[in-house]
Amino acid sequence: MTSDLDIFVGNTTLIDEEVLQLWLDGHSVSEAVARRLRGGLLDHTGSSVQVLQSDTRDHFRTFQMLERLLHAPPRLLQQLLFQIPPPRQALLVQRYYAFDEALARELLGKKLSKGTRKDLDEVSARVGVSIKSCRRQFDNFRRVFKAVEELRGPLAENIQQLFLLPPPMARDYAAIVFFAFSRFETGKRRLQFLSFGDLAACAQELMDRWTLGALAPEAAEPDGDVPKSFLQDLKELKVLVGDKDLLDMHKSLVCTALRGKISVYNEMEANFKPLSRALVNVGAKLTHARDVRDFFVDLVEKVIEPCRADKWTPGDLRLFLTQYTATPRALPGFRHQALWERYMAAISACLLRMYHD
Fold first, then answer.
1. What percentage of the chain has pLDDT greater than the value 90?
2. CA nearest neighbour of 279 among 243, 240, 229
3. Which of 263, 278, 258, 284 lies closest to 351, judged by CA?
4. What is the DSSP letter of 188?
5. Do 131 and 120 touch, CB atoms closer than 8 A?
6. Which residues, in sequence order, are CB contacts of 6 under 8 Å at separation 6+?
7. Which pLDDT tens digit goes with each residue over 110-129?
């Protein structure tokens, strides 16, 4: 009796997405096998526990060998040892550099140093991410930061080119790098309502409007640098609250434009001057390192919380900021409208993103 046997031989490296995620999440081989068993894999395949253990161990060994290439993704594309189709290469890179937003939120504004890495045990417990995964993600943040900190040009574009990340993920990493550059305070209790997405969106606005890449594209400096000359220039805006006549005229123009259009008109009119001083002074103080760190604290404490107390809606705030920004062009003797609009465009975008429970 004879039987035919078909044999297929190939050298394509197989990537099981489920096992990849278990490895990325920091599970051991035995933990991964247990999870695959609970998922009913044997019922679907008719295989044995021993084969499942061998398969899982083989995948883990492959991922560990690939990891050194994932530290510099272009090398993954150039190497010949692992025959991986381009779509699977892209999958590997994106999965490896994906991160938990809760962890990223905890680390925003902190120095990406060995000391911070040593404290990840406490962070791991707070965010519910395994310590092994926390360390991998932290190392990714630090690796990207080190790779681009001295490079000229837009952060997101540099990150996308060096790490082959899709644009949305590159922009998120750019925000993390920007916060590491600027060291903004994000850990205080009054800021805990802000998500990673909120702060990343604010970082993007600041990079788009305040950094050297936005102010002087020909300089081609890193987006992480807000030039000191720009911060010094912001002091010129204090005339809007320091000159009583200008302050009164500014208030009159805004109130005239908003009468009957916002639900908190009386509150806005009564509190216009302290609110205007807060909006101007947040920027005027940014020449001092301590005040740079407290940028988001000041926005929440001096603008968002008073508006919440007076029951402003997001729509009220949007209309107010629009008129507040536009009306100084009608003020006699005010010569800093372009600077003012650039400053307020970023401030307004940040406030509107942050104005929620």
1. 80
2. 240
3. 278
4. S
5. yes
6. none
7. 999 999 999 999 999 999 99
